[in-house]
Amino acid sequence: MANTSPWNKTLAKQGWYKRNEIAITPWLFLLPALIMFAIYVVFPILQSFRISLFKWDGLGSLATHGEYVGMANYEKLLTRDRSFNISIWNNLKWLIFYLASIPAGLFIALFLNQTVRGIRLYKSLFFFPFVISQIVVGLVFTWFYDPQFGLFNGIIGFIGFEPINVLGDPSLATYGVIAAGLWPQTAYCMILYLTGLNSVDPEQIEAARLDGAKGMRMLWHVILPQLRPATFIAFVVTIIGSLRSFDLISIMTNGGPFGSSRVLSFYMFEKSLSEYGFKMGYGAAIAVILFLIMMVFIGYFLWRMYQDEKITN
Amino acid sequence: MFPKPIEKSSRAWQLGYQVLLPIVMLLWLAPLLAVALFSIRPDTDFLVGNYWGWPSSFEMIKNYSMVFSSAMPRYIMNSFLITIPTVIGAVALSSMAGFALGVYKFRGNLLVFFMFIAGNFVPFQILMVPVRDLTLDMGLYNTKTGLVLFHIAFQTGFCTLFMRNFIKALPYELTEAARVEGIAEWRIFWYVVLPLMKPAIAALSVLIFTFIWNDYFWAIVLTQGENAQPVTAGITSFNAQFRAMYHLMSAGSIIAALPPVLMFFLMQKHFIAGLTLGAVK
After folding, report:
1. Looking at chain B from residue 53 to 92, which residues have their Cβ under 8 Å from any Cβ of chain A?
2. Exposed site from A38, B100, B195, B275, fewest CB < 10 Å?
3. For chain A, percent helix, then strand, then coil, each to nearest 5?
4. What's the predicted TM-score (pTM) here?
5. ipTM for the complex shown
6. Which residues of B are less than 8 Å from A229 in CB distance?
7. Which CATH class is domain A80-312?
8. Which residue of A has its CA nearest to B98?
9. What confidence tens digit (pLDDT) does each residue in B16-49 have?
C-alpha cells in the first residue's frame, strides 16, 4: 500500500533501513511475539509428535534415554487400552452435553434482556460463575453433590428420592462433572447472546411485528439469523472448552471412580506425570490423538474465519 | 428489542417478572451461596449435622482469619506475582504483533495471523511434556518465572487476535496521514496507534488477569510447593491440610475466587467488551 507513494523516491537516497522501512518494520514488531510463540507453542507441538514414537520416562534426554518404538504406543492405545476407550467415550459425552450450554445461555439471555430497574446487576450476577476459577466451581459442586450434606441430595430428598452419591457412581460421575461444567459455560454463552441481542436491528423486529410474527417464529426467523456471529463464537468456545476439560475432573473425581470419568486430557496427564511412573512417550501419543481430534474442529473454525477475512479484505 | 419489553405488557406480567427475577437468580447461585453460608458457620455446626439450618453462631471473622494465618496469603501473593507480569508481557507483545498485522500488508500476513489463532486453540496436553522439559532444562522448574514465560507465550495467540482486529478497525487514514508527514514507523506505533488502543489494552488486561489467575493445569505441571504455586493449586493442599473442616475449606475457596471477581465488577464494561469480541458484526 504505502510502497507506491511518491515519497519513496526521496527515500531511495537514504540508508538501507530507511528505504526498506515499510517492509522491515512489521517483522521487527512481530519478532518478539513470534520467538516466544515458536519456542513455547510451535516447537513443542512438533516435539510431542516425535516423543510419541519413543518409550521414555522423562529422565535424561530423549536421545540418550528414550527407546525408539515406532508406532507401538499408538498401536497399544488403539487396540489394547481399555482406559483409552473409556476416555474417548467420555470426551464424546462432554462434547455432546456441553453444547446444551448454548441453548441454555440463549434462554437466560432472552429472560434477562429487559430494561427493568437493577437489571444490570442481575446480568452480572448471572455471569458470576464464569469469573470464578474452575477449581472453585469444582469444589462448590463436589459439596453440592455430597451424599451427606449436599444441597443436591437435600433437594431430591425433599421430593422423596433416596440420596444418590453422584460422583461415587461410575455410571453417573461423568454426567455430574459435565453438569458442573455447564454452569460457567452457560454464563459465557449468555453474555455472548446478551451482547448479540443488544445489536439486533430494531427496524427488522418492528417490520416483522407488523407482519404478525411473534414468539418462537420471530425468534427463529428474525432474531436467530441476526445472532449468527454470537452463535458461531458460542460453538467455538464450547467445543474447544469441552475437549479441554481437565480442571473439573481433576478436582471433582480425579478421574474416578475406577477411572470412569477420565477424558483424554486427564488420562494423558495421568500417564505422563502420575505416581505410577512417568510414561512420557505414551502420554505424548494420547496428546497427539487429542490434538488431531481437535484439529478437525480448529480447521473448520479457521476456514470459516478465513472466509470472513477474505470478504472484509 | 426482543423479547417484547416488559413495560409494554400488562401490570400482572410486570409484577410477575419482578418477583421471578430474584428467585431465579438465587437458584442460579445456590451452590455458591451454600458455600458462603458454610464459610461463616462454626465447626460445631458440622459435627451436629446442622448444615442448612440457621448457624448456631456467626464465625466469619474467626474462620477467615484462620485462612489468613495458613499458607493461603503466600499462594495469593504468588498468584499476583504470576498474573501481573503475564498481563504486562502478553499485552506488550501482542500490541506490537497486532500493530504489524493490522497496519501493514505483506506476504505471509494472514498466515502468521492464522498461526496465532490456531495456537490459541490447541489442547494444552500436546505442549505439556516438551514445555515441562524445556522449563526443567532452563532451570526454571518450580519458579514463578517459568510459569510467567509460558503464559506470556501462550496468551500472545489470543491477545494478538484481539489486538489485530481492534487495530484493523481503526481509521486507516490515521497511519497514512502520519506517514505523509514523514514520521518514522515506530513513532507511528507509539504516538498514533498506541494511544488509540487504550480500550483494547484495558479489556485484554482484565481478561488475561482472570484467565491466568484461574489457571490450574500449568500451575500443577510447572510448579509444586508453596514458594511458587498460585492459589488455584494451593487450594488443594490447603484442603488436604484442613480435610473435612468445611467451614475453613469454604472460606479458603471464597478467598481464592475473590480477586478475579473484584476485577470483573470493577472493570465490567471492559471485561465484557473483551469477551464478546466478534459476537457482533
Report:
1. none
2. B195
3. 75, 0, 25
4. 0.90
5. 0.90
6. 278-281
7. mainly alpha
8. A30
9. 999 999 999 999 998 888 888 888 988 888 877 7
